[in-house]
C-alpha cells in the first residue's frame, strides 16, 4: 500500500512524518529492522525501523536505506541533519514517539500492510475490521488480545480519551480506572461470556463512555473489542453490531495465534544470545528488568522418522505451544527458533526460580499433542540478563549430550554433569582420530563389548561374565587375545572412553 495509507492507518499517536522527498504515494511492501551492528538487509519498498542508533549514528543507516530504495525510515529522534540526509537519500523519514516500543510498532505496521481497494480502503485485516466496526457502531474502536495489548484500532477525527491514547502507545491505562474495571467484574465477564458490557463515563479520570465485548473460540477467550463513544452518541444498533463483530474477529485472532513469533522478537533474542545487542536495550523493548535474574531453556524435537515437511510442521507447532506456556509464565518471555532448536528466554525471575516443573509441563504437553519425543535442557538461572549467554551455552551443552547418549526428557547441568562431560570427551574423540588408540579401534565387536563390560565392572571377571552371559574362563580367554596392557590404568581409561564412543 502507499505510504499515505499506512500513515493514515497508524495515525499520529505512533509516528509523525518529517520529510517525504518522493511524496506519499510510494509503495510500502514490508517492515524490516535495521540494526547498526548488522549488515543492512533492506529491499525496495521497505519501511525500515532503525533501532539502537540515535542522532548522527542513524545517518549511515538512512543512507543505506536510500541506496536500497526503501520507502521510508523510522527513527526515535529526528533532527535537521537526519531530515537532510533522508532528502539526499530520497527516502521518507518518520519520527516515532518516544513512548512507543519498536516491537509494538512493527506488529501494528505489519498488520496494516495488506490488500487495498482503489480508493485506499484497507481490506482483510484487523485494522479493516476495526474500521468497519467503528462505522457500524458510530464509535472509536480498539481490538486487544487477552493481555490487553492493542492489535488494531480505527481511524478517528473525534477526540480520544486518555485510556485509548495510552493503549495505542502500548502503555497501561490509568490504574484507578483499571482497578474499577476489575472490581466491577468487567474483565471476568468479558472473558467468560459473549455479553456486551457497558462502562459508564468517568469525567474525573478523563474516560468516556464505552461498550465492550469478549472475543471467543468456544470457551477460550481470545481478546476484546472496545468501543469508545466519540463526539456523538453510539448508534442504536451498536451493541448488536459489536456482538457480530466479535464472532467475525475470532477467526482472525486464531490465525494470528497460529503464525510464528514476530521476527522482531525473534531477532531480539538472537541478538542478545549472540552478544550483538546489550541486555539493557533488549530489556527496554520487552518491558523487563535487566538487573533481575534470567534463564534460557532450549527445546529440541526428536523422532527423525517423519519426512522433512512433517517434521518442520511439528516443530512450528511445538514452538507455538512453547510460546503460549512461556508467555503465561512471564509476559516478557522471548521465544525463537535457530538451528532446529527452540530457545526460550525467561527474564525477571525470582532468585530461587524453579523452572524444571514448567519445562516438564511443556515437554509433556508437546509429547501428548505432537505424538513425538521432545527433549529440553534448562540453563542455570543467572543473576542478570547480561549473563543470558552463559545460561544458553550451558543448556546447549546439556541438550547436545542428551541428543548423543542421554535418555532423558528434561535435564539441567547439575543433574547430569558427569554424563555431559563424558559425552563431550567422546565427541572430541569421535572428531579427532589422531588422539585415539588404533588398537582399540581395531577390536572386533565381540572383543570390544567384552572389554567394555569388564572395565565397567572394575576388573571383576565374574561380575562381567555374568552380565555377558558367558563362563568366566571364556571372558579370560577373550581378554588375553586383546593386545593391551590392562594393568596400566591410563590404558584402561583410554580404552574405556573409546569403547563408549563405539
Automatic annotation (TrEMBL):
Entry's transmembrane regions: none
Gene3D superfamilies: PucR C-terminal helix-turn-helix domain
Domain CdaR GGDEF-like: 278-401
InterPro entries attached to this UniProt entry: CdaR-like_regulators, CdaR_GGDEF, PucR_C-HTH_dom, PucR_C-HTH_sf
Coiled-coil residue windows: none
Domain PucR C-terminal helix-turn-helix: residue ranges: 447-500
One Pfam family recorded for the sequence: GGDEF_2
Extent of the signal sequence: none
Family per record: Belongs to the CdaR family.
Listed name of the protein: Helix-turn-helix domain-containing protein
Source organism per UniProt: Lentzea roselyniae
